[in-house]
Prior knowledge:
Blueprint: H1 2-14, E1 26-40, E2 52-57, E3 62-72, E4 75-84, E5 107-113, E6 117-125, H2 127-130, E7 168-176, E8 183-190, E9 206-216, E10 219-229, E11 246-257, E12 261-272, E13 282-291, E14 296-305, E15 318-328, E16 333-344, E17 346-347, E18 351-352, E19 377-386
Antiparallel strand pairs: 1-2, 1-3, 1-19, 3-4, 4-5, 5-6, 6-7, 7-8, 8-9, 9-10, 10-11, 11-12, 12-13, 13-14, 14-15, 15-16, 16-19, 17-18
Amino acid sequence: MQKKLIALAIAAAFAPAVAMADTSNVTVYGVADASLDNVKNGGTAASATSVTENKVSSNVSRLGLKGSEDLGGGLKAIWQIETAITLDGRNNATGNPSADTLATRNTFVGLAGDAWGSLTLGRNDTPYKTSTRALDVFYDHIADNRSLMGISSSQIAGLAGAAAFDGRFTDTVRYDSPSFSGFKVAGSYTLSAEGNNNPAANSKGRAVSLSGNYETGPFSAAAAYQKHNLGSTAGAIPAMGAGLTSERAWKLGAGYKVSQFAVNGVYEKTTDNLGVNGGGHKAFYLAGAFNATANDAIKLAYTKAKQTGDGSQANSGAKQWALGVDHNMSKRTTVYAMYTKLDNDGNTTTGGATYGLFNSGVTGASGAAPAQGGDPSAFSFGMKHVF
Length: 387
């Protein structure tokens, strides 16, 4: 009864016209995750002197509504509306109080059946992204491996690029299969965006993403592929110039988890035809967690990105390591502490890579971007509650 009242209150706030609608099929869920971060960017473009920020970060806090309706014959309608929230009330870009809008995260409507899976339309994570997210022991925090993995070459010093592979796209159709003895497949297709009045002269980008996941007992494995066909006009996939037409990535992941410990690994390769400043890169991730007690875990992770695939950028690699501790106060509430350091190749005088720490949600916990060769680091102490 309490959740129905909460759902009704949220519906009234977001959509007054439907405030009195039946909320029996509405589930309210979310994550409230805030941390006190001390971040050093390892040197700025203007100076080799490191800039330090002390701030409260909202990480990837979010609020969602979802539900389903039984349509008979094993078929049901499904829907979800999810929004990023700023627990500290600050906007990443301006630092001013944030005006968060509705449906900024995975938001869709579709059909599902136990025998054939689900098909959704809307804004959604790609299967490439979701295939290995569970293998990252620091996911959605400042030590997340997406500082070096799942990205486009636009996030590497001096390189061209388009959209991140670990992304969430609008205009997306996604299919997820049921489990066949532990094996699942997923695929998505991102269409050209609306408003293209002259498709012959103004092509818009498209993306296809595929994944396969297998889980049996303590072992899990994943494989994924994604390709972006880049257009000449901005749409769901960013535009690129003439002749710069595609970028793609594939990865493999595996994990082994028992009551006492977990060990995970991911290997990724990205490639593109984005000209002299392109070529993609190779990266890998290794992580482990040791459960010291029933409620305490010690976590360690190492991520490395090698130099660009075409060799056009010297000192374009980087590595990151992270150490953290989690303490579960309950099944839904965790307090944590972590330290992470990212070492870019090169230095601030001769040039190098400019990877930054993961932008931990809407408050931008990574702080100011480092200079070429800068080595950002961070301490983070926080609390996470899942509801």
